[in-house]
Design goal:
- The chain is an alpha/beta fold.
- It folds into two domains: about 80 residues; about 130 residues, 3-Layer(aba) Sandwich (Severin), CATH 3.40.20.
- The chain is built from six helices and eight strands.
- The strands form two sheets. The protein has a six-stranded mixed β-sheet with strand order 3-5-4-6-7-8, sandwiched between helices.
- Strand 7, helix 5 and strand 8 form a beta-alpha-beta unit.
- The longest helix has about 55 residues.
- The termini are far apart.
- The C terminus is likely disordered.
- Its main location: cytoplasm.
- One of its GO terms (biological process) is regulation of actin filament polymerization.
- Pfam families: Cofilin_ADF.
- Belongs to the actin-binding proteins ADF family. Coactosin subfamily.
Length: about 260
């Protein structure tokens, strides 16, 4: 009757398996309950954001300010929509290349599942450090460098001296970093100032947005000398006058007009 073992052993194994399946079922129910609660919170957040948007737009007096505010609200709405889709539909983040993830297998009893976990971001330290020193050097014309993601590594993607070219480096679906040198001061006291910029395009996914604080800290391990740090999320913000204004506020007033454009 029991060809493969003693009845007591088989009964014990069956009971252990039964208890494990029940435990897994309870855990699954808990997870579903938590996701339902999170979904309701996201729904409520979206409703609040919509009400906030309508009330604030009603208070705007300038048409220019209204357009800018609408743009900012649309960016926020897209972020919430991304989060909502992840929570409610189990949407995967497909913005990371396949070499950015590793498969981890987890088995429970006779069931298994796999999940993708982002690997730690790496740096091409040699090219990043060389670009950083190039921008800081008075002996070269280089006034900016841009650092982007290639797979799971951050590399120097471009250098230059023309600010128009600098603005072209940042796409709406990209994350990136910029380092700039600007000539500030008056005719009698010109001085160099440096700025560090973090770019998160409006079409970047929620997951990759969340990773930026960690990735930025890695980059700043090399790029450590700057007067101003900005995080930008729209092309309109990549403006040399705004950059200079931020640097002026960080370092005091200018008394002349002798500034060199990029």
């Amino acid at each position: 009757m029991y060809a493969d073992g003693h009845p007591e052993q088989i009964e014990g194994n069956y009971k252990s398996l039964h208890d494990r399946v029940r435990e897994l079922s309870d855990n699954q129910n808990n997870i579903v309950t938590k996701f339902d609660a999170l979904t309701k919170n996201v729904d409520e957040f979206r409703n609040i954001l919509t009400q906030f948007s309508e009330k604030m737009i009603a208070l705007e007096e300038s048409a220019t300010d209204r357009r800018k505010f609408r743009s900012e609200i649309n960016v926020l709405r897209k972020r919430i929509d991304d989060l909502y889709a992840i929570v409610k539909e189990g949407k995967e983040d497909n913005s990371c290349p396949s070499d950015d993830v590793q498969e981890i297998e987890s088995c429970h009893s006779e069931f298994s599942c796999s999940s993708k976990v982002a690997m730690t971001t790496g740096l091409d330290r040699d090219t990043i450090r060389a670009a950083y020193e190039d921008v800081r050097s008075d002996a070269t014309p280089t006034e900016w460098a841009v650092f982007k993601f290639e797979g799971s590594r951050i590399v120097c993607s471009a250098r230059g001296s023309d600010f128009t070219e600098f603005r072209k480096q940042f796409a709406d679906d990209e994350r990136a970093f910029g380092y700039l040198r600007l000539q500030m001061g008056d005719e009698m006291s010109k001085r160099r100032k440096f700025m560090f910029m973090t770019w998160v395009g409006p079409n970047v996914s929620v997951i990759n947005r969340a990773k930026m604080s960690t990735d930025k800290a890695i980059v700043k391990d090399i790029i450590s000398n700057f007067a101003v740090e900005l995080q930008l999320e729209s092309q309109a913000e990549i403006d040399i006058d705004q950059f200079k204004d931020a640097l002026n506020r960080a370092g005091g007033a200018n008394y002349g007009t002798g500034v060199r454009d990029l």
